[in-house]
Design goal:
With 352 residues, this protein is α+β, with helices and mostly antiparallel strands. It has 10 helices and 13 strands. The strands form 3 sheets. Strands 7, 8, 9, 10, 11, 12 and 13 form a 7-stranded antiparallel sheet that branches. A 4-stranded antiparallel sheet has the order 1-2-3-4. It is elongated and about 90 Å long. The N and C termini lie far apart (89 Å).
Length: 352
């Protein structure tokens, strides 16, 4: 029986030796001498161990497409945050073709690489936001540095989102813990505590006379809820009282962002308007823009957002605007309902 076995590609014991051998081969080819010099520069910048050939097919001839992997250390607050990038050089680089970069790392730190980052790296030399390439110019270093900055910024964003999520969850746990009543020892104490608790409840803030607030059905997405409310106003001085009235409702005040709002009020020839993000950056401005493009005056629109523990990204602004629009429609503030709205069904809700 034959002892011959099919050999599988071996991981090079000394990646630097492979790179140095490739540099030596390219150096004797005048048309690819520039690539050899570039590889030497990359070794001196990132370190000998940072570069290694990537050749699963075993073809390392200088006339073939050159592929090598570069390990990049990102400039972050955390030590040893790295990413691996595959550099592919076509035979016509750098004369008439740019290189191509591909992110090999599936994770950067604890965060899984998403399609947006992966695609951005792939388009390094194709996107207007990436690296400019010119014929007969080596540019791998510029591309790798751009990828480093992009990945470091992406990592910092993910880390900030994780920290924000942890803080929000901690706040919700603390709020829930403070909201749980202890088991009373007997029914008499339970009744007494019930009356005492009622005595401690803040008295509802008075709503201005004649104000009717309409409340649309909530929009639910990934455990977050968005509730839109709207009412007609005839003087800017009514706004603080209406918001205070809403905040006196514990069901509203306990939300992550209880009173994101915008209002417009025409008094004589003067148009008064204002908005408030209530902690949801730029949300109030978006509501103000909605009122402007709908040309709705003498109205206050309020959106309450209950955070469900999952970040929604830009989708949250879409839901905030839709919740506001539903309330405006329910209150009859929109004279014409767009066809897109009719496809979704008319807004439903109730009056307060």
């Amino acid at each position: 029986m034959s002892n011959a076995r099919t050999s599988s590609p071996q991981v090079p014991e000394n990646p630097a030796a492979d790179i140095n051998e490739l540099i030596a081969q390219l150096s004797v080819d005048p048309e690819r001498e520039a690539i050899a010099a570039e590889l030497g520069v990359l070794q001196s910048i990132y370190g000998d161990d940072a570069l290694k050939l990537f050749h699963p097919t075993g073809d390392t001839s200088p006339s073939a497409k050159i592929r090598y992997e570069v390990s990049l250390s990102l400039d972050t607050d955390d030590d040893e945050t790295k990413c691996a990038v595959l550099v592919s050089l076509p035979p016509t680089y750098p004369a008439t073709s740019p290189p191509q970069l591909q992110l090999l790392s599936r994770y950067i730190g604890p965060f899984g690489v998403d399609s947006a980052l992966w695609g951005a790296v792939l388009r390094t030399y194709m996107s207007s936001e990436g690296v400019e390439w010119a014929e007969d110019s080596v540019c791998v270093f510029d591309g790798l540095e751009w990828v480093k900055e992009r990945c470091a910024a992406w990592y910092a964003t993910k880390k900030s989102e994780k920290l924000a999520g942890e803080l929000l969850r901690a706040d919700e746990r603390n709020f829930a813990a403070g909201d749980v009543e202890e088991e009373p020892p007997n029914a008499v104490v339970e009744l007494h505590n019930s009356h005492a608790e009622q005595d401690r409840q803040p008295a509802p803030s008075a709503i201005p006379k004649g104000i009717v607030i309409v409340e649309a059905e909530p929009i639910i997405d990934r455990k977050s809820a968005f509730v839109g409310r709207a009412c007609r106003i005839n003087d800017p001085s009514q706004v603080p009282s209406i918001l205070a009235h809403l905040m006196s409702d514990r069901r509203i005040s306990r939300a992550a962002h209880p009173i994101i709002n915008a209002w417009r009020c025409q008094v004589g020839a003067t148009l008064h308007q204002d908005n408030d993000d209530d902690g949801e950056t730029a949300a109030g401005g978006r509501l103000a823009h909605l009122l402007q493009i709908l040309e709705v005056n003498n109205v206050l629109v309020v959106v309450t957002r209950y955070f469900g523990g999952i970040h929604l990204g830009p989708d949250r602004f879409k839901h905030i605007n839709q919740a506001a629009r539903n309330a405006l429609e329910l209150g009859g503030f929109l004279d014409v309902v767009e066809s897109t709205t009719s496809k979704k069904g008319h807004a439903r809700g109730r009056k307060r």
